[in-house]
Amino acid sequence: MSLSIENLLGLEDVPQADINQIFDAAFSFREVLERPVKKVPTLKGTTVVNLFFEPSTRTKNSFALAEKRLSADTVNFSAASSSLQKGESLKDTIQNLCAMKIDLVVMRHPTPGSVKMLADFVNAVIINAGDGTHEHPTQALLDIMSLKEKFGQVQDLNVAIIGDIKHSRVALSNIYGLKTMGANVMLCAPPPFMPVSVEDLDVKVTYNVDEALEFADAVNVLRIQKERQASGLIPSLREYRNRFGITLERVASLQKPITILHPGPMNRQVEIDSAIADGENAIILDQVLNGVAVRMAVLFLLSGS
Amino acid sequence: MQKSTIKDKLLLKNGEMIDPCQEKIERQDILINDGKIEKIKAEIDAQDDYKVIDLKGLKIAPGFIDLHTHLREPGQEDAETIATGARAALAGGFTRVCCMPNTNPSLSTQESMRFIREKAKLVDIDVMPIASITIDRKGRELTEFGELAEVGAVAFSDDGNPVENSQIMRNALEYSKLVDKPIINHSEDQDLKNQGIINESIVSTTTGLRGNPTIAEEIMIYRDLRLAEFTGAKLHIPHVTAKGSVDLIRAAQEKGVRVTAEVTPHHLSLTDEYMHSFNTLGKVAPPLRSESDRQALVEGLKDGTIDAIATDHAPHTYNRKETSLDLAAYGMIGLESAFGLVMTKLVHEDQLSLIELIKKMTTMPAAIIDIELPCFKTGERAEFTLFDTDEWWVFNEKNIESRSSNTPFIGQELTGRVKKVIIGNKVIEI
């Protein structure tokens, strides 16, 4: 049993069979996580570097925990991207690390493509933990795994992604992953948050949140970053909430249950009401647990152990 | 590259002469005496004291002129110098280049212009400086166009930076009429560019890289065309990339606006699809555009809307390119690969005839900066580029004479290759 991919750079080119394999492994690791002793020796002797060029709390901790649960040896390297601006080339930084005989690299970087650049010239397995506004494959995998857990299958499921699609790595990875798994995807955002020509990816596009909620079995609600307002892309968070917020009233008016995902961190009462985020149809905390399981699965399967 | 100086008379035999001035191609022998053309005839017999070069299979054209070269000196000698840039030019068949003023200090004063001219005396090619439009390219105060023209400025440009303030641009165009030299404005509206790294398209969507929309270019070109029409001044538009820009320029030319335009070999050869590689070597300003834009550029060349091919040769050190895409410098080198690329993409794909291509690399750029091109007149200095239109070759590091090697074309298969350059009594084997 092995994956067709050698690195996990994004979900753009990952086939369905690989995703299914990752889910199978992840569901087995979920059981490990429910045990009193939550540790397996799977990656004993394997060295993983967590290379974070951008602040991260959730993803970093989730990977750290996944590595610990698998008994891997880990090294953490955090660098503000400013140190690279001082003149050291990204290539030098990374080659230096890899000279220390690393097996796997988990990398986050603020610039799209940096993770691919790394993969092109180092002899280690690379896992993308988010590269700028490009992809965040493990987040999408945990989102889709949570949908699979909830609905049994993802095929033909209607999933809406609502929020700042354009500046989101989570959205793009979700689009690729969901399409590969046979789901129908609708994107909903204010026009300045909708990426150019995104309908070419075989997704539906709407500016009307009620239409999206009507369509969806599940919605993935993206965080609205406050700085977007400062840069003039939207006039106010107030208007955003009125037009696009997943409010109690909106959800209550639907004639059906709707499953709620959020990759976090949430701006409560902006893109989502607390009553919805904490409500019975939210699977936001399942996502967090599945995040550890899916990262264990990815580390395990890509390590070749 | 190997250079030899011919003391005797030099006879070029059996070459096919491409004369863009007379628009004809014919087999001619050329006799050069002390660096000057003495005789051109269908058959010239060799004498004992002649050095003879057999040009069988080669074409001979006037030396190429590049309107858009960054020589980086003074200030960034780690990336290029006038000496290394001149070698790169020769390797590409260029005998004259116009160097852009975005140096440090910039070419804003007579002093800095004289520095270039002094350095240029030491190289084989002609280096024709373009002075900046505004002092230190800051877009605020005009430089002294009159004084700068006196010491050899062939045009004015803040290249790398656009002149953003419309009133300053109007003043520049108006004042340029004093010297009747073109204003070359880097056409990217910085607000609309919005720190974009690549073309805004489905490629920016799927790579997550910040998009730079074609309207950032089109809107500034439109403003400049209207200002050129209003003032009656000469405007030259560098590195056109978008279909909309070609349409705007065409319409302005039909109205009689004094506007000329250039396109780079890389915008004719690559599209934004290249950026799926996330390779920083594809990061240029303005960016690589879509295939439909690329086709419009070819159409613009064919119908004469775009007058010239110019390289925008932009050397950068390893460190400025081997970094993440947002930090990497904009630009690629272009002198050495230019001819092979345009031969491959234009002539061999039946888009442009050979004579049309040569015009766009010789007489047309000469006309834009209003310099005399002797072509094949007896008594004039010999200044020729000799090439094989059909040689298939793979561009590689060894073909690079520039101090920098930031080009995505390493490994590119090309058809058409520069073989020799003759300047005066010097013969340079490429």
Description:
The complex is a heterodimer of chains A (305) and B (430). Chain A has 305 residues and is an alpha/beta fold. Chain A folds into two domains: 16-135 and 288-303, Aspartate/ornithine carbamoyltransferase (Rossmann fold, 3-Layer(aba) Sandwich); 137-287, 3-Layer(aba) Sandwich (Rossmann fold). Chain A has 13 helices and nine strands. Chain A has a five-stranded parallel beta sheet with strand order 7-6-5-8-9, with helices on both faces. A four-stranded parallel beta sheet of chain A has the order 2-1-3-4, sandwiched between helices. In chain A, strand 5, helix 7 (169-180) and strand 6 form a beta-alpha-beta unit. In chain A, helix 2 (58-69) crosses helix 13 and helix 6 (137-151) crosses helix 7. Chain A is globular. The N and C termini of chain A lie close together (10 Å). In chain A, 46% of the residues are buried. Chain B is an alpha/beta fold. Chain B folds into two domains: 2-60 and 380-429, Urease, subunit C, domain 1 (Roll), CATH 2.30.40; 63-368, TIM Barrel, CATH 3.20.20. Chain B contains 14 helices and 19 strands. Chain B has helices at residues 82-91, 110-120, 145-150, 166-176, 190-193, 202-207, 214-231, 243-254, 265-269, 291-302, 318-321, 335-347, 354-361, 363-368, and strands at residues 2-5, 9-19, 24-33, 36-41, 50-54, 59-62, 64-69, 94-99, 126-129, 156-157, 183-184, 198-199, 211-212, 235-237, 259-263, 308-309, 383-394, 413-423, 426-429. In chain B, strands 1, 2, 3, 4, 5, 6, 17, 18 and 19 form a nine-stranded mixed beta sheet that branches. In chain B, strands 10-11-14-15-16 form a five-stranded parallel beta sheet. In chain B, strands 7-8-9 form a three-stranded parallel beta sheet. In chain B, helix 1 (82-91) links the parallel strand 7 (64-69) and strand 8. Chain B is globular and about 65 Å long. The N and C termini of chain B lie close together (5 Å). The relative contact order of chain B is 0.16. At the A-B interface, helix 5 of A face helix 6 of B.
